[in-house]
Amino acid sequence: MSKILWQALMLGPVVLGASLAIATTASANEIQGTVAGLDPSSAVQPVANLEASPAVPAAPVTAQSPAAPQAPQMVDPQLQQAPGSQIPDATGNDPAGRVNSVSQLTDVDPGTWAFQSLQSLVERYGCIAGYPDGTFRGNRSLTRYEFAAGMYACLNSLQERIGQLSPEELATIKRLQEEFAAELATLRGRVDQLEARTDELDANQFSTTTKLSGEAIFATAYAFGDERAVRSGAAPSGVDIEDNSNPIFGYRARLNFDTSFFGKDRLRVRLQGRDIPNLGTVTGTNMSRLAFDGTTTPQNNLELDDLYYRVPLGANGNVYIAATNVEYNDAVEVFSPLESSGRGALSRFGRFNPIYRQGGDGTGLIANIGLGEKVTVSAGYLVPTTVAADALQEPGDNNSGLIGGEYAATAQIAFEPTDKASFGLTYVRSYLPTGTGFLSSVGSANANSPFGAGVPITANSFGAQANFRLNPKVNLSGWAGYSLVNAANATDDNADVLNYAVTLAFPDLGKEGNLAAIVVGQPPKAISNTIANREDEGTSYHIEGLYRFQVNDNISITPGLFVLLNPEHNGANDPVFTGTIRTTFTF
User: Fold this and answer.
1) Burial of 133 (C-beta count, 10 Å sphere; 0-12/13-18/19+)
2) Are 209 and 193 in contact (CB under 8 A)?
3) DSSP of 457-495, one letter per residue?
4) Cβ atoms of 462 and 426 closer than 8 Å
5) Are 540 and 568 in contact (CB under 8 A)?
6) Contact criterion met (CB below 8 Å) for 129 and 104
7) Cα 150 to Cα 144: distance, rounded to the nearest angstrom
8) CB atoms within 10 A of CB 225
């Protein structure tokens, strides 16, 4: 036992320094377990044996990394010397190209936090060398082969130094070993306890492949104004909002099970329960919908919300196989800092361009392909889940199966010329056999159902989106969406629907994680229609302000208010106000 402790004392300074300089760049899963390629014969001999004999040269490391075409020059098996040793040839040069000074590593900044440790390992212990191009590459992950080569070099150098110790130095080491015997025993006991605890956690862990995460929203909201809004061209309702509304309190809870089978794939299973009403039933317009509204049937039950499998496609792409309840914003970039329903905008319209909502809660495929580092092309085909699962097609039924009914096919090209700016151009071709709920009902009644209920429609929608990070504290983004809508019946009616918005966001305002934002825009509007009384005559304006206060890593509180001027694009309607306080818990 004394020999083991003695050896540990000798190895301590060097191994600790090596771990600090080498292993800081290693990911945990790359250095767990036994270091592959380290020859057991290279272990340092006990100090008691070294008193009588010089250091025994270690066996060379022969393992090479198959994944690293350019292995670091950690060890030269022919010379059997530590890489830091100076072995000049007749001209005075180092034939192996070894590094004898940390200054020879061209990518090591003297201001980096590990500089002194690295300098000591190179110049004092001769443990570290660089790559053939003179770099150290301290910011990338370390392979197990490289770790083995570095550890071998340190042990080899240490053996030489132990063999050169004087009797007085060996006596000092023995005395220190005896003085700290109790502390070393305590430390060993703690390590044994940690090992036992780790074994217990491994044996009782939830899953080796699945991670559980969750989100819960508690929200209170109140919609108020003078009269209920009515469709453009209709007579005033004469019904006061206050007579029909009360402040509400609702919730939404989500559990995500994310499973990876080979590292870069993901199987997402999401369970959800919620009870937050559509405030449009009180205000008379779907423009007042909250970002996180919805109910489950029966209430307070969990439902399957998301189910998809994402797999890599080449080096810079992926494919989403959507089984149920997937939206395009789950898989493609929407260029909005307020996209999240739990941490972003409070209104449904304020989250992102509504043209992405077509085919929502759907089944299908979505693919993203990176063309270099600055361009991404996306394409997808979604069918509402209830339609995709309907195999029975009755006479006159145009709403069943993957290709026989409602669908939305999307194509997008995204540009990111710098890390501070991104742009997107989007096209969606859609078919809606019921003729209602166009753009997920976030606009006026005339935009949501251009030709009336029961009239099927086809639409070609075009979107332009942009996001600019003006500085770390200011973000400017916006979108515009334009849809050419046609009646898919003998009438051949057509309409044009327009929406746009601009968002100014202030990340980390007051504290890291906080967010203040202002959204100003126009919800979807039927700017023209061959059916005269279904054309919106006025213009609604959506004005929203919010401030998300990050209490800690897991809790945020977001109070906010959004106002609808001329709701339903009807100048005769009174403004509608919706105040909300959303508390979001994440784990």
Assistant:
1) exposed
2) no
3) EEEEEEEEEEEEEEETTEEEEEEEEEEEEEESSTT--EE
4) yes
5) yes
6) no
7) 10
8) 23
User: Rounded to an integer, what distance in angstroms lies between the CA atom of residue 481 and that of residue 439?
Assistant: 10
Q: Tell me how far CA of residue 353 lies from CA of 34, 274, 279, 294, 328, in angstroms.
A: 52, 24, 20, 20, 11
What pLDDT is stored for residue 232 in this prediction? 85
In the block, tokens 């078919």 appear at 431
Query: Which tokens sit at 152?
Result: 């071998």
Question: Token pair of 271, please?
Answer: 């369970």
Q: How far apart are CA 308 and CA 356, in angstroms?
A: 18
Rounded CA-CA distance 529/527 in Å is 7
Mean pLDDT of 432-449: 92
Pull the structure tokens for residue 383.
């069918």
539: tokens are 């213009």
- Cα separation, 330 vs 304, in Å, equals 15
Token pair of 45 as six digits: 């001999």
Helix (H, G, I), strand (E, B) or coil at 157: helix
Question: DSSP per residue over 388-425, as a string?
Answer: HT-----TT----TTTSS-EEEEEEEEEEEETTEEEEE
Per the CB < 8 A criterion, the answer to whether 62 and 82 are in contact is: no
Domains and CATH numbers, the chain: 2-165 (no CATH), 210-586 (2.40.160.10)
CA 400, distance to chain mean position in Å, is: 35
Which range, 47-51, 112-116, 426-430, is most confident? Answer: 426-430
> 504-531 pLDDT, tens per residue?
999 999 999 999 999 999 999 999 999 9
**Contact by Cβ (8 Å): 365, 579:** no
Tokens of 351: 């989250």
Quick check: 331 and 356 in contact, CB under 8 A? no
Question: Are 216 and 253 within 8 A, CB to CB?
Answer: yes
Alpha carbons within 13 A on the beta-carbon side of 171:
3
Average pLDDT of the chain to the nearest whole number? 81
Q: Is the Cβ–Cβ distance between 507 and 484 less than 8 Å?
A: no
Q: CA 269 from chain center: how many Å? A: 16
Q: What DSSP character marks residue 72?
A: -
* 8 Å CB contact between 275 and 300: yes
Q: Do residues 228 and 284 touch, judged by C-beta distance below 8 A?
A: yes
pLDDT of the residue at 56 = 36
| C-alpha–C-alpha distance, residues 192 and 178, integer Å | 21
Nearby residues of 218 by Cβ (< 8 Å), 6 or more positions away: 249, 251, 582, 583, 585
Number of H helices, E strands in the chain: 10, 17
Report residue 257 as tokens.
């099970």
What is the distance between the alpha carbons of residues 454 and 184, in angstroms, rounded to a whole number?
81
Higher pLDDT, 203 or 94: 203
Cβ atoms within 10 Å of 92's Cβ, excluding its own: 7
**Residue keyed to tokens 């001209």:** 91
- Tens digits of residue pLDDT in 318-356: 999 999 999 999 999 999 999 999 999 999 999 999 999
Question: What are 208-225's pLDDT values in tens digits?
Answer: 789 999 999 999 999 999
Q: What DSSP line would sit under 186-245, residue for residue? A: HHHHHHHHHHHHHHHHHHH-S-SSEEEEEEEEEEEEEEEESB----TTSPP---BSTTT-
- Does the pLDDT of residue 83 top 50, yes or no? no
CA-based Rg of the chain, rounded to a whole angstrom?
33
Q: Are 75 and 62 in contact (CB under 8 A)?
A: no
